[in-house]
């Protein structure tokens, strides 16, 4: 049986990319007999609606398969959650998970990264550089649905830049300014670097290969645009996150036009 990984690539004439690696909720039918988690448990740790936010006027790479089947933002040997410590203490798979399926999933992971590498290389060849907006969301209210969020420890936007080459510091400052010059949900924006997350495997992979040609901004929105316990969306807030990034992409274009 061949396992399927659902993904979508949309390309335009642009050096900029948006990725939504954790939006997906799909599990291959062949794996369902081995899965221990309910849909609600999976949704809690997935990043629903990030594919909508990633619908920007740039190239797009969206994964429709759940991170609980294959986590594309982790190294291949960590991309299938075989131990609870890999998955927020959750037991994901029955102990008889077939080795053949595991090997297939690892090969799918390697295939996806070959695709990513080819597309980024094409951007570099055409434009001389690339910028990736790696869009995620995160839970900040783990104690209970009614607990107050610790806003000091959980910025509204966590910007992962830890793995980027220092040559992109000025670009990073410009990117942050483009965000903080706007509002989100009618309020000033609290964006901080590397507080909760530094960036996952995608940013490490791209920086290792192409770090002198471009960088990755791993954008983790706090799940203020949804109920992180039920998954219920706030459509207006999702649209606001998307518009924030549309405006910010325009700032990126202006930055590189000025640099050129």
TrEMBL record:
Gene Ontology molecular-function annotations: N-formylglutamate deformylase activity
State the SUPFAM superfamilies in the record: Zn-dependent exopeptidases (SSF53187)
Main enzyme class: hydrolase
Identify the keywords attached in UniProt to this record, alphabetized.
Hydrolase
Which Pfam family is one of those matched by this entry?
Answer: FGase
What EC numbers are recorded for this enzyme? 3.5.1.68
Instruction: Report the superkingdom from the record.
Output: Bacteria
The entry's protein name is N-formylglutamate amidohydrolase
The beginning of the lineage is: Bacteria, Pseudomonadati, Bacteroidota, Sphingobacteriia, Sphingobacteriales
